[in-house]
Amino acid sequence: MARSSLVQVRLGAGADLDGFRAAARSLVAGGVPPEAVVFTSGEAADLFGAPVLPEGEPLSLPRAAADLVQLVACHRDPERWALLYRLIWRLTHGEKALLEVMSDPLVHRLAMMAKAIRRDLHKMHAFVRFRRVETAEGERYIAWFEPDNHILAAAAPFFRNRFGSLDWTILTPGGRVRWTGGALHYGPPATRDEAPTGDGFEEGWRDYYESTFNPARLNTTAMRAEMPKKYWRNMPETAAIPALVRAATSRVGDMMDREPAMPVKRNPDKAVAAMQDQAPRSLDELNRIIAASGPLVPGATRAVLGEGPVGAAIAFVGEQPGDQEDLQGRPFVGPAGQLLDRALEEAGIDRADVYLTNAVKHFKFVRRGSRRIHESPTAGEVKHYRWWLERELDLVRPGFVVALGATAALALTGHAVPVGRNR
Asked: E strand or H helix at 365, and its extent?
């Protein structure tokens, strides 16, 4: 094909998914093969070349392909659009099962790009740190983050759902997003000096991090893999890491030299009473207390907080997080969550409009080999978490609450509720 017959597609900067979808529809409708298309990025999105392409109908792609396109569109690789169009062309020209062939070089490369985006999203969800700022408009929370890819728009709904009651802004080199309670507002690229360098909460956060640091389990290789050093300068707790690492050997020696002592029995009731004294004024404040207070069930790792908008019409309360919830730090993302999603869809309810939480905020499990097997919380453990749940629902103010199972009903009512007789 001569150079003059090439079709050039110019897309907007970043993850211009809408522009790519429109272009792909036109290209497929016009019968333009992948080798005849050149994709470029610019400020404005337009389609030009010869011949003039028709406006295409929506493409019928497998769900897995649509999800892959949405992820890979966020990648920084300039070849992503050409690779994605080649995938779409092959799917719409007879290779319907293409995505099942992981040995195919195109499928493998796109899968690796999608994996990189999922990893980048996970890092952003975990490592964004908001700083409180007092302005003439009131209290605001601002964060600076430097993602590897164009993921700001893909990551923003997570923070909207998690911090729906706050006025917050995330600044990145590629753009910014602000949430004020009504909608997500996107803006131009930012510089680091636009973000605050600290707030009054950070000293307490560093103290908590230092108190939970276990020198006997220090593994700097694993630490750098999970929390790469490039994110450290934006995370207040990392300022303590060098000193903690340097002192780890001597601290372990001190621990070994101490006289054996009987463990101090933890009293969860005192912990709950102490939390009551703190009287959090917002859902974000309560979540900070929950995250910092440590688990009240054995074997748990981190708190899985509630998710959804303040003032939701419906709040769903489950028993406790499962394995996937504990790994991802979000409620109802495992098998039970997938079942709930299907039920919500059949009922015509948008998951983004409801509030989801659990009676117990930590994953209680027993380990069998490499697997972590769910273990139901006791009535006493449910009681210990009950103040958190009641305060959480007071702050969310749902129209009504749905108990998903007997444990949730026990937490909400304070007494055993046989599900079969009270469904």
From this structure: strand 365-368
